[in-house]
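User: Here's a structure from my thesis project, written as structure tokens. My advisor, Dr. K., wants to see whether a designed sequence matches the one we expressed. Can you design one independently, without my sequence as a hint?
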């Protein structure tokens, strides 16, 4: 059996599912359906809201694909975190001479800087997330320590985080903005944890807060455990997530619930307990109000495809 991937046009992941010749690609936005993000080749792009309505972090593009062709030179108008999960190649950035990149590796591609990527035969497999918003300038707090090429200890957690973020990105949900901002922070925290040089990883306040979000404790107890004042926690969450601590906790909990509904056979009651709710009825009502459908409907829509 031959591998036909090498003859498949690889889409430009900033142009809504179009390939380099601007012809429609069969895996573009028009054909995307919930559950597609579990495959090996999918792509979604989003239209950011106006600046007046924009939350602190917003997703602009997300996907996963094999790549075989030279890309660039080009510039983005948003940040892109590109994870090369397998394969190798070369990257040229900011006019520098090309240098080697070997999976697993993270490429931080900032806006406005010209770059190009060149996979080596037989190509590489990548997943990526583009994002923008006022908080994107807070690079250390978002996990960007200044490196463009960041070797990773493993590609599995980032791949799972990308797929989880795609499940969360549903613009029709009532609380879409806060859900995506929280999911982006989780994704960026995953990248920080997977750095090969783990000695440089120091959890941020927001990461520590997110890690404890599913504990059945109150916001004042979180404040005490973090050794902060209520105002300090409110400022930290608001500055980089654009919401209140209570809203951030709810988003983290329900994003995890979405992931468990889409990828496991756990009962709704078990998932409710996993994300911090002993009362299944209360969890179901809360989920329905904030997501726009009950957990059972969400599971049917997003069930992982074999």
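Assistant: Designed independently from the structure alone:
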């Amino acid at each position: 059996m031959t591998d036909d991937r090498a003859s498949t046009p690889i889409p430009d992941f900033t142009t809504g599912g179009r390939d380099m010749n601007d012809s429609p690609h069969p895996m573009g936005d028009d054909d995307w359906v919930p559950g597609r993000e579990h495959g090996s080749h999918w792509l979604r792009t989003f239209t950011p809201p106006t600046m007046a309505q924009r939350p602190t972090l917003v997703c602009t593009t997300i996907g996963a694909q094999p790549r075989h062709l030279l890309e660039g030179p080009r510039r983005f108008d948003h940040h892109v975190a590109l994870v090369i999960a397998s394969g190798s190649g070369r990257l040229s950035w900011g006019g520098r001479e090309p240098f080697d990149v070997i999976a697993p590796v993270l490429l931080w591609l900032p806006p406005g800087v010209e770059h190009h990527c060149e996979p080596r035969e037989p190509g590489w497999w990548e997943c990526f997330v583009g994002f923008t918003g006022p908080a994107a300038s807070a690079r250390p707090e978002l996990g960007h320590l200044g490196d463009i090429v960041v070797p990773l200890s493993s590609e599995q957690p980032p791949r799972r985080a990308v797929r989880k973020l795609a499940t969360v990105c549903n613009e029709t949900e009532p609380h879409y903005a806060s859900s995506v901002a929280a999911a982006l922070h989780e994704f960026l925290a995953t990248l920080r944890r997977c750095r090969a040089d783990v000695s440089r990883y120091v959890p941020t306040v927001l990461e520590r807060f997110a890690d404890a979000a599913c504990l059945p404790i109150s916001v004042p107890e979180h404040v005490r455990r973090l050794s902060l004042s209520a105002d300090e926690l409110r400022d930290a969450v608001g500055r980089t997530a654009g919401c209140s601590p209570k809203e951030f906790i709810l988003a983290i909990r329900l994003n995890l619930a979405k992931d468990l509904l889409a990828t496991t056979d756990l009962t709704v009651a078990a998932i409710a307990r996993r994300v911090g709710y002993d009362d299944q009825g209360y969890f179901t009502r809360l989920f329905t109000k904030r997501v726009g459908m009950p957990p059972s409907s969400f599971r049917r829509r997003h069930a992982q495809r074999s």
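When you compare it with your expressed construct, this may help: The first strand starts at residue 42 and ends at 45.
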